[in-house]
Amino acid sequence: MKQRKLITQYSYTDDFCTGLSRTFGYMNSFKWLWMTGLSGLIYISLQRRPAVLRGVSVGTCCDRWTVDYLAERGGSKDVKVHVSAEPQMDFLHKNFLYRTLPFDVFVRRAAEKKHADFFISEEEYYYLRSLGEDPRKEPADLQKQFPGLAEDFCIPQFFQPGQFFSCVFRISSCGLQLWTHYDVMDNLLVQVSGRKRVVLYSPQDAQYLYLSGDKSEVLDIDNPDLERFPDFVKARRYECVLDPGDLIFIPALWFHNTLALQFGVGVNVFWRHLPEESYDKRDPYGNKDLVAAARAMQATERALRALEDLPPDYRDFYARRMVLHIQSRAYSCPQEEAVQRDYSAQSL
Ligand SMILES: O=C(O)CCC(=O)C(=O)O
Ligand SMILES: [Fe+2]
Predict the structure, then answer these.
(1) What ranges in 138-233 are assigned the alpha helix state H?
(2) Same domain as 311, residue 341
(3) How far is residue 92 CA from its own chain's centroid?
(4) Contact assessment for residue 120 and residue 97, using Cβ atoms and an 8 Å cutoff
(5) How far is the CA of 89 from the centre of ligand 2 (A)?
(6) Which of 170, 173, 197 has most ligand 1 atoms within 8 Å of its beta carbon, as the pocket-test mutant?
(7) Which of 253, 278, 303 is the last residue of a domain?
(8) Ligand 1 atom closest to Cα of 127?
(9) What domain range includes position 334?
(10) 100: which strand partners?
(11) Is 20 a member of any domain?
(12) I want to staple 204 with a disulfide (CB 3.0 to 4.6 A). Which of 113, 115, 147, 338 is the partner?
């Protein structure tokens, strides 16, 4: 297994400025800019690298959002939740059920380890990813679905208001692990309560992740089945633990896998890094491939169907030529270089 790397970590005022001054040598002017918040994340998002941010002000939620408070202020609005007998949720093989519960009942259940009332077993696991009013059309927005709680959460102003896409509640039972996937929007995931481990993989390691669409088939990333997934060891793993109040910036296309080390409440904000027309309009989740990418994937499918008209040895030859052509025309750096890239703090 490749060595594990820590994701670059900044504390909002001091370390971040030190990092910047090491890089640019203008400590004071950047300190001033950093205070505006926006320029801080512009700096990080221009790097297109994940980063953990500590000490960013996200409102009163970190002090207020106890289970009782959430249940009371969140009310009894119905929410659709994932329920699973196993802690590792598997979207590809659907080892969970979708069930609807009143929000207050759900929060109390997710916070307890053994359940008197349950769907599958008394030790089942719960996960909420909040949805929009019409989930097929509208992205989630905490402000609209949970206004009584949204007033405790202040979205860090790290992007322009017009770039905002969605604001999503993420609530997990202790031990719950979410499958490895990527999203197409830039993301700030705020850990409000509980601790969470986050593992990331670079988009440049996609070929080692055994993808099925936007998800990896490798469910157990800590003990992967290397007979089925021998190349998984080549994927470089970046890891951090979020404490309450910490944020992680997950750039679009970075794969992430999360493990709730405790019952945890989080909120994530997705925003558009690219012009609005680049994104699929019918995508309330922020995980549909960009319009141009989807077109390219369809064209690849057509090319592969055309190859089927050839005998196997010719098909093999032209498939290899196509791979080489794509690599030389479209990769931003040769694969070898990508493998050696170092996103760790030392590289700053
Ligand atoms: O709830 C989680 O930990 C997963 C978060 C996630 O996938 C996201 O913010 O995009
Ligand atoms: Fe995600």
Answers:
(1) 142-145, 147-150
(2) yes
(3) 17
(4) yes
(5) 14
(6) 170
(7) 278
(8) 1
(9) 291-347
(10) 80
(11) no
(12) 338
Tell me the C-alpha to C-alpha distance, in Å, between residue 182 and each of 185, 204, 216, 306.
Answer: 9, 12, 9, 30
Q: Which two tokens stand for residue 139?
A: 């992205």
Ligand 1: nearest atom to the Cα of 260: 3
The structure's pTM equals 0.88
How deeply is 281 buried, as exposed, middle or buried, from its count of CB atoms within 10 A (0-12, 13-18, 19+)? exposed
**Which structure tokens are listed for 121?**
């077993």
Distance of CA 295 to the CA centre of its chain: 24
Helix axes 67-74, 103-111, angle to 10 degrees: 170
Ligand 1 binding pocket includes 183 (Cβ within 6 Å): yes
The answer on 332 and 301 residing in a single domain is yes
Q: Is the CB of 204 under 6 A from ligand 1?
A: no
Alpha-carbon span 261 to 231, nearest angstrom: 28
Look at residue 16 and tell me if it is in a domain: no
Q: Classify residue 39: in a domain, yes or no.
A: no
Strand arrangement, sheet containing 196-201: 5-6, 238-242, 196-201, 255-260, 177-181, 215-216, 211-212
Q: Rounded CA gap, 143 and 194, in Å?
A: 22
Residue 211, amino acid: L
Indicate whether residue 187 lines ligand 1 (CB < 6 A): yes
pLDDT in tens, the chain (348 residues): 454 666 677 765 544 433 433 333 333 333 333 444 555 566 666 778 999 999 899 999 999 999 999 999 999 999 999 999 999 999 989 999 999 999 999 999 999 999 999 999 999 999 999 999 888 889 999 999 999 999 999 988 888 999 999 999 999 999 999 999 999 999 999 999 999 999 999 999 999 999 999 999 999 999 999 999 999 999 999 999 999 999 999 999 999 999 999 999 999 999 999 999 999 999 999 899 999 999 999 999 999 999 999 999 999 999 999 999 999 999 987 655 544 554 443 332
Which ligand neighbours the alpha carbon of 268 most closely? 1
Q: Are both 221 and 298 inside the same structural domain?
A: no
